[in-house]
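Below is a filled-in request sheet from our internal design queue. Each sheet records the structural input a requester submitted and the sequence that came back. We keep these sheets so that new team members can see what a complete request looks like end to end.

REQUESTER: design group, bay 2
PRIORITY: normal
MODE: inverse folding
CHAIN LENGTH: 423
BACKBONE (tokenized):
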């Protein structure tokens, strides 16, 4: 088991606190394995096995658990007589009223609680107010490029030693970082697949399984959860999903999508389209990024862009045609910024745009992303918006192809591999 240290450290930081630790993210991004990592960490600290209890809610053993009362009674029965237990609940979102059980266990039992879920409904329902202020969310993603190299068993030069494009494997073989990056951009970072050399046929079958589970189990059956609106038209849902995947990084709107579907003979409207998009975001398949007026320093109500959780899922939805590679590149940079704990917005300037405005406490940077700017006009277009920003924060252009000065008029030019590996 390859440890994803950043996420494990986040769990350890809140170990033995009164807060419920909730791990969220798209299916098969590694949430269950993270709980296993935490179990191993606790066992290494000397916690005996009988105090480490896991409840996998999608297993046949627990399939009959229908509501929070049954869940509470089951857990209380298993922890009876045990001092300070550690409770791990995997994929809890389908248990109606789960928050009541978790809150009661938190109050009634001497325990430390960890929960995973593959749908934002886990923390957005009215019942979730029961644990409001009493939980911490660890939002998990598929692998970053650095993690992907670790899973592939490739060693590479760290920060301060840029220049080499070679990654070495344990068996003595090697590959260029650029070739591994091309694989990552095409096949993405779901952990199971990253443990081996990419294979398109295997990747397609695995991603089909993830996609069908998200569509059928997480979205189409959502009405079975009390108070949730049903998604009634699978065809429309999948068409909207395909549209968003094909338009990552493009400014879009519900009206535009509805109009496109109507032109193709699919009956829908803006309200339905907006609702269906929200379910795809709720399932962590896409993220919506708001536009930010850089000069006015305020969020804009209109526009916005969508980015997909994993480039490999985009390839699957695109039938592996490898289209819009520049947009995929932008998506990878967005996912990296989120992994690095930045709040990310799309920057708006009058007559221009900055791909990302990334902020966290006492830090801000403006980021442009481009495939290639060896053409003089392309370089001018990418640099111009950054030159118009008058503050002192970092301004970066992330580029995939070509060789450039490290700095042009105070703007950093960074190769995408160096950016993703923090070199």
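RETURNED SEQUENCE:
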């Amino acid at each position: 088991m390859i440890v994803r240290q950043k996420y494990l450290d986040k769990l350890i930081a809140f170990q033995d606190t009164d807060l419920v630790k909730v791990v969220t993210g798209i299916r098969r991004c590694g949430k269950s394995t993270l709980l296993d990592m935490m179990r191993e960490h606790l066992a290494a600290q000397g916690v005996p096995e009988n105090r480490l209890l896991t409840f996998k809610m999608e297993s046949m053993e627990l399939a009959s658990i229908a509501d929070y009362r049954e869940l509470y009674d089951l857990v209380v029965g298993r922890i009876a007589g045990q001092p300070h237990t550690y409770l791990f609940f995997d994929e809890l979102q389908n248990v109606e009223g789960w928050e009541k059980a978790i809150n009661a266990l938190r109050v009634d039992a001497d325990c430390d609680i960890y929960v995973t879920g593959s749908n934002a409904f886990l923390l957005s329902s009215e019942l979730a107010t029961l644990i409001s202020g009493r939980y911490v969310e660890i939002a998990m993603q598929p692998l970053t490029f650095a993690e992907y190299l670790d899973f592939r068993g490739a060693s590479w030069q760290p920060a301060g030693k840029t220049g080499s494009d070679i990654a070495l494997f344990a068996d003595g073989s090697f590959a260029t970082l650029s070739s591994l990056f091309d694989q990552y951009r095409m096949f993405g970072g779901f952990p199971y697949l990253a443990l081996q050399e990419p294979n398109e046929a295997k990747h397609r079958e695995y991603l089909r399984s993830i996609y069908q589970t998200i569509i059928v189990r997480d979205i189409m059956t959502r009405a079975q959860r009390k108070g949730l609106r049903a998604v009634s038209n699978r065809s429309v849902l999948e068409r909207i999903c395909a549209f968003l995947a094909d338009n990552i990084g493009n400014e879009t709107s519900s009206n535009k999508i509805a109009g496109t579907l109507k032109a193709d003979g699919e009956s829908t409207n803006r309200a339905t389209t907006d609702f269906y998009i929200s379910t795809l975001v709720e399932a962590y398949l896409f993220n919506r990024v708001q536009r930010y007026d850089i000069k006015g320093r305020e969020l804009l109500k209109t526009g916005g862009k969508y980015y997909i959780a994993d480039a490999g899922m985009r390839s699957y939805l695109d039938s592996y045609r490898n289209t819009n590679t520049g947009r995929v590149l932008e998506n990878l940079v967005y996912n990296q910024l989120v992994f690095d704990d930045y709040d990310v917005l799309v920057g708006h300037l009058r007559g221009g745009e900055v791909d990302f405005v990334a902020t966290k406490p006492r830090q801000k940077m403006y980021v442009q992303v481009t495939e290639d700017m060896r053409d003089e006009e392309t370089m001018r277009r990418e640099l111009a918006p950054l030159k118009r920003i008058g503050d002192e924060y970092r301004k970066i252009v992330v580029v995939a192809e070509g060789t450039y000065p490290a700095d042009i008029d105070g703007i950093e030019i960074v190769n995408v591999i160096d950016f993703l590996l923090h070199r």
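SHEET NOTES:
- The chain is about 40% helix and 20% strand.
- The first strand starts at residue 20 and ends at 24.
FILED BY: M.R.
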